[in-house]
Specification:
Helices cover about 25% and strands about 40% of the residues. With about 120 residues, the chain is α+β, with helices and mostly antiparallel strands. The termini are far apart. It holds the Pfam family TehB-like. This is Tellurite resistance protein TehB.
Amino acid sequence: MSLVPKGYVKFKSTPLFNKQSVPPILLDKYTTQTGIYGQIQVHQGELRFVGLKDGAVDKELIIKAHETAISHPKYWHRIELLSEDTQFQIHYYAHQSLLQAALSKTSVQQSASLSAASGS
């Protein structure tokens, strides 16, 4: 089982994806932003996680039903669904301090927008 580092909290999850609904970008190559971990959770079937470094395969991992794997921030990767019935989702985690900073920035922007709208 893969673990997200201490101090990181889940802030977003994708819907459940299957062969028909998986976004094409996940099958090509994809990375998370700085400070964001992705946890791939397979609910049914299995998929292959292919880690990429400088455009070449760095590592491969088979993730089966009821297993998870972690993709580190800024690590390029892609996935391959290995069975017709594969269903999975991705949970995104960020450090608490990163989320607090983002929330503070959003609050300031919303306050400024409200002030501008009210003519204050």
